[in-house]
Amino acid sequence: MGWAAGLAVIGTAIAVLGLVVWRKVPRNVVGLLLVWVGAVVVFVAARDVFLPSNQFFEEGAWWLVVAVALLLLFFPDGRLPSPRWRAVAVLLVVCCLVQQTVSVPLLREPAFGLMLVLVLVAAFSLVVRFRRAGGRERAQLKWLALAGLAVAVYPIVCLVEILITGESGVVATGFGIATLIGLPASVAVAMLRHDLYDVDRIVADSVTYAIVVVALLGTYAGIALTLGLFLGKESAPAAAIATAVCALVLSPLRTRLQRLVDRRLYPPRRAALAAIEDLQRRIHTEQAQPEELELSLRTALRDPTLRVGLLVPGASGFVDAAGVPVGADGGVPVLLGGVQIGLLAGASGPAVLKAVATGAASLVEVSRLRAEVASALRDVAASRSRLVQAGDRERRRLERDLHDGAQQRLVSLGMALRLAQRHLDDGSVDVNGLLDQAVAELSTAIAELRQIAHGLRPTSLDDGLHAALAAITRSLPIPVRLDIGPDELPDELAITAYFVAAEAVTNAAKYAHASSIAVRVEQAAEDVRIRVEDDGCGGATPRPGSGLSGLADRVAAIGGSLSMHSPAGRGTTIEVVLPCGS
């Protein structure tokens, strides 16, 4: 009664699994076949309660065999492998009906034999499917192969238990129940979440441990039986010796067997781990670098899209060994000590990448540390370069400020003194006034030199750009017309505009022999424009190291542009555009 109740519970669970599969995939008959299997198991349990044990098998077990065989034929897409397989399905049902309804031995015995053959043919249909299948269907078939492996091992487990204990007991019963549950469970996982676990890894490990368990039981039984002939059937030393021999022989055998099975059933993982081991060996002999991990894995997995991302401090995300960003979408984390240090991304699939990530963790950590050191060295080199460049820029700035500011004021001062000298004797000019003005200009120039030495802007800009330019033009011997629109500009723009106008006006007065100069500064929505025009001789060309060349550098340093139009005999026009963003 207890056995039947347990069987009924198992059958109900199988039927529920079938209903879940059928609800998720309603057009696939696999779910309904699972319901059939569960219903037959419940029926067998119920018949065992009311009929003698020799009759319940006749009433239900044959339909269980048919249901399982049809499940093998229609799994996983709910269709037969080809129309020719319909004959197998029909013959299965016919043979079962013969077993159920015909009592003539001449018909029952051939039907029994044919039914066994048809079950094997149904199992072979999975091999046919596997050869034709793609990635998804192959993964589903591998899940069913797990249950098939348990079915294949079950008779061996029963035989070994009988050899050791003399009867089929707890081990065989427990393994049988696990097998009965394993088939529908594998089918359900394959239909609903075939990509939930690494099925290749599970198959490889299952095959390995199945062989190890069978070998262990066989070795133990053989040694125990042999020693039992000499030491007695219930001899404790015989059991102890058998156990010790099994432990010594089969422990190293499992490792070698795992490698062999991986090579046959899990080639991507094995190839990747072999590549990692080879790279580690070459690194130890100084024949390779840890940064070659990505290339080695690409070659081993035949996946040109594979990327090894490193989690380097200071980076915005994952980067490779060269510092190139690596996308994290679909990547598998690489953990070391429970802390993520990188990721593997590619087309090989998360199952394979997870297996490889564990084996590659140490190399990823070494690569990450080396990348971190390389990044720090690059930062130091860049910092040194910026310091050198900043020093050069500062020297050039001082040179430009001296040339474009104080020097121009001193030139203007010299011209004013020369004018005073010329009119010193004729009394037509107020020489004292000119000298007073010269002294004031000299004081201003000295102040500007002091400010430049301290990296400050000219003090004349304190009163605005118009006042600063007016202070320069007042000392010139030719009239200068100022049209300064914005008087309040950011310091950087005001200083640049000041030096541009000062240099252009001084050049026009000194070299162009102009009779008039016009300076115009206007501010638009996104830029400030400085335009300086004269009516001089024209023909000006900027030369390297000249004042105009320095002005062009100054303007370019803040993202501006300088243009000059100077046709011979028609004056010169210099126009500067400075971005202001407001």
Automatic annotation (TrEMBL):
EC code(s) of this entry: 2.7.13.3
Cited InterPro entries: HATPase_C_sf, HATPase_dom, Sensor_HK_TwoCompSys, Sig_transdc_His_kin_sub3_dim/P
GO molecular function: ATP binding; phosphorelay sensor kinase activity; protein dimerization activity
Keyword field: ATP-binding, Kinase, Membrane, Nucleotide-binding, Phosphoprotein, Transferase, Transmembrane, Transmembrane helix, Two-component regulatory system
Pfam families in UniProt: HATPase_c, HisKA_3
CDD domains referenced in this protein's UniProt entry, alphabetically: HATPase_UhpB-NarQ-NarX-like (cd16917)
Enzyme class: transferase
Cellular component GO terms, alphabetical: membrane
Domain of life according to the entry: Bacteria
UniProt catalytic activity: ATP + protein L-histidine = ADP + protein N-phospho-L-histidine
Record domain Histidine kinase/HSP90-like ATPase: where: 492-582
SMART domains referenced in this protein's UniProt entry, alphabetically: HATPase_c (SM00387)
Residue intervals passing through the bilayer: 6-22, 29-50, 56-75, 87-106, 112-131, 143-164, 170-190, 202-230, 236-253
PANTHER family assigned: NITRATE/NITRITE SENSOR PROTEIN NARX-RELATED (PTHR24421), NITRATE_NITRITE SENSOR PROTEIN NARQ (PTHR24421:SF10)
Protein's name according to its UniProt entry: histidine kinase
